[in-house]
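name: query_chain
kind: protein
chains: 1
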Amino acid sequence: MKMKKYLVILFLILGASITSTAQVRFEAKVSKDRLGINERLRVDFEMNEDGDNFRAPEFTDFRIIGGPNQSISNSWVNGKRSFSKTYSYFLAPQKRGKITIGQATVEINGQIYKTSPVEVTITEAVEAPTDGNNSDYIASENVHLVAEVSNTNPYLNEAITVTYKLYVSHNVSITSQWREIDSPKYSDFWSQNIDNRNLQIMQGKYQGRDYRYVILRTTVLYPQKTGKLEISPLTLDVPIDVPGNRRDFFGRRIMERVNKTISAGKRTIDVKPLPTEGRPDNFSGAVGNFDFEATTNKTTLNTNESLQLDLKVTGNGNFKLFSLPNVTLPSAIEVYEPEHREQIQTNTQGMRGSVTNSYTLVPQAPGSYPIHPIQFSYFDPKTEKYHTITSERITINVEGSPVVATTPSAASGSGQQVVLSEDNFKYIKLDAALKPLDKKPFFKSTLFWTSMIAPVLLIPVIILASKKRNERLSDVEGNRLRQANRLAKKYLSEAKRNSTNLDVFYESLERALHNFLKGKLHLETSEMDKNRISELLIEKNVSAETVTEFIELLKSCEFARYATASQNSVNADYQKAVDVLSNIDKQMI
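structure:
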């Protein structure tokens, strides 16, 4: 009877142990088992008992873009304990097809547990990828880089503009510290960038939603070939602050920084050839809307006097891509190579201004010489027609007696002999008025002794300067502190310049405070907890009042992300930052 009692107790103990073992659960869960190659996958490895030595599987054919993130839930309900511990990963698929996620392992109560393999199917890219729990996905859905083309079907040599806009939703924020990692290529285009130094934040809509946006760059293009021409994309690396899963003391979501590579996408321009119907014989490639005139500064002059003939084209079009018409003159007029002048500005409508060829003419004999009308032709893409402008006829009256010819005129097309008078060369001076120079010997002169003594006097100065420089270079701590002060002053200066733009002001102010702490306290951004900052500053002999002011300043920067600040508070926070950083620098030991 006693033996049976022991057996019952033993079976109860074994049963309880088996039941306890059977209750341990360790499994892998995926956010979806079928997704596009441009979507993101979340994988959770969840256990109901606290385990150690967790090992994730090899995520073959995936790129880890987030994680591992660890979360623990421990609660008691009606006396019953509920525990959960989860390791989360965010993955980006690298190829299409069926991919198996291998087994993860963990040690619980001295035993090794494994998850079951999970198979997911990766399809082609979907139009609207969804994965709301991933910070990387949130960033990609709220920041867009767009290349807007004014005309995707222009004529050859017709101006078009490409405007690059960066759209940012009100759910996230970015800094101005983005980096261009790939510039667009404009093969087969004449191109010119229009500077946009002051980025102005504007309000607009993108795909029907309200966004803020800035115009990063505007480029004017003139296609030089017909057919389909491609514009390679502009690609940026942008730091984006997105709402995370953690919350601060007031229940506000803490922002997480994600570095996102975004691209404007490749654009295709289908360029039409200029029509052949109605094309003038003298057409030289001018496309746009132009005026043309031929003028002289005088029409009556004496033999061997000069006059100026100007051929001028004004308007809007491809000024640098065509040539002005040639001029044909009587053989008795000597013509010099023209002086080419340009007054051109490039804006979003293309090139606008004027080009002029100025000819210097010198008649060699008296008489009346006509300059026949000159024609200039261009193609107007708006009317899709060719236009020809004809200048007025100009008559030049030359007075005086003819001069004796000795050589044929270089500008004469007929080879007619035109003589030159002896007065043509009177400007050449034949008698030189040369004077000897009073040259003093260099040896033992003031310059000689200065050259000898100066290097000797400079040696102590050089030695002293070198010693000071070496001391400064060896002062690692001092250099670090000076660098921190320079960064703080730099960002405070940037904040002051942007005092009218509240978002940029508080971003710059917060960066100044963080960089100051990095230099003074050896803190990284991830370690900047307010309690930790307060403790370290007090340890460095900073007064409690100054520490409180510094912490309040940090809170003002954080609060500005969620509430609108006034101009008075902006000015007060800036002055407070100047005073606080100066006081900390003086008080720290």
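note: The radius of gyration is 40 Å.
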